[in-house]
Structures are given as C-alpha cells and as structure tokens.
Design a protein that fits this description.
Length: about 220
C-alpha cells in the first residue's frame, strides 16, 4: 500500500517547527458522516492538520502525501501525541500501481478524503486517482473531496525548509470532475459549490463506486 515512512526515523528529523492543529472547514463538515473508528485515507495530507484532527476523533488515518518534509513532520506529530496515523507516499503517475495500491487498501474498508488535491493533478494523474478510488472503494466506500472551483491558478508558497504550503491549484469546472468520476464507473451523490472561510468558491463532492458499474 505504497511505501510507509518510518515514524521513528521521522521523529528524529529536526528543524521542522511544531504547529497548533487547526482542522479545515471541510474536515469538520465530513466528520459527522464517518462511522466510529473509521479508517480515513487522507489523500495529500500536507503537514497533517486534518489527519491529526481525524485521529483525535478516534479514527485511524492513512495519510498520503507527495512531499517528504511534510510527511516527516506528520510522523513527528503522530509520535508525539500517540495518534493512529501512518504516512505513505502518494503515487499517481502509473495506472497499474494506483490500482494495485487501491486493491491493497480495499479490505480495510477506507473512507477517502481529499482537500485541494485534484486541482494540482494533471488529467492523467486524475484518471489514476479515480482508478485508485474505484479499486479501494468499490461496493462499499465513499470519497469526500473538495477543490477550488472555476478556472484560474493560484501561486505556490514554499517555506525555507521546502514544505509546500499551497500548491499551484487549477480551479476546475465541477462538471468536468463529475464527468471524470462517472467515466471511471463512479456515481456522484452530492455536488455543491459554496464559499468557505478558506476560499470564496470551492466544490464539494461525495462519490462512490458501486459494484458492477463499469468504467466508460
């Protein structure tokens, strides 16, 4: 299921400041839908504010990410607070690997969660994200995702230690994402565009992949 980062090794890394954990508005929105003790797969967890929040609510968290410094910091936070968080590399560059990791995750009955991931992916990477999701969630799981709606780009901010604070995010047309999910065999149960404290226009989607529904 990807390559886990050693919590012990991550804890030994120095120079990354600890921060107060403040969950996003989306994490607080999703939490009431999660069953007790759910496994939450946080896709592109960043420095882990939402992952830590989910763990503090009693959930086990698989925190997937692309930046090693952020995963290392998350490992330190988990070790310090005794939280059930396991960091993993997020690899969406190859379709077979994405499907294989999804199948490995499927028996654990995960709930997928993603905030600000899809806008930073290429079309090919998004297609692999839906393959990954279908393999992991088919017949029983749910994917809650949020992304910047409309069409423009935001700048990237990077700390001196290399942690990406805000990735370059394409503001996607929600209906394009809806069509991609349906083409992968998924169904969108809920789609809404709204303003949040973090962004004046985000799209929130609740998707699932029913068993027997074929990809286009």
């Amino acid at each position: 299921m990807g390559t886990p980062i050693s919590i012990a090794d991550a804890y030994a890394v120095v120079g990354l400041p600890q921060r107060a954990v403040v969950p996003s508005d989306f994490a607080q929105y999703v939490t009431p839908e999660l069953p007790d003790g759910a496994l939450v797969a946080d896709l592109e967890a960043g420095v882990g504010h939402d992952a830590v929040y989910f763990a503090q609510q009693g959930h086990e968290v698989s925190a997937f990410g692309c930046a090693r410094p952020a995963l290392e910091q998350l490992g330190r936070l988990a070790r310090r607070d005794g939280l059930a968080i396991t960091p993993y590399w997020l690899l969406l560059d190859e379709s077979r690997r994405a499907e294989r990791i999804g199948r490995q995750l499927s028996p654990e009955r995960p709930w997928f969660y993603s905030r600000s991931l899809v806008g930073g992916l290429s079309p090919a990477e998004r297609a692999n994200l839906w393959r990954f999701s279908r393999a992991a969630l088919v017949g029983r799981g749910v994917f809650h995702l949020e992304f910047a709606a409309a069409r423009r780009r935001r700048p990237t901010a990077v700390r001196p230690d290399g942690v990406r604070l805000e990735a370059a995010q394409a503001r996607l047309d929600p209906h394009d994402v809806w069509r991609e999910i349906r083409a992968s065999g998924g169904l969108v149960d809920c789609l809404e565009v709204l303003a949040t404290p973090e962004d004046p226009a985000v799209c929130r989607i609740r998707a699932r992949w029913p068993r027997g529904r074929l990809a286009a």
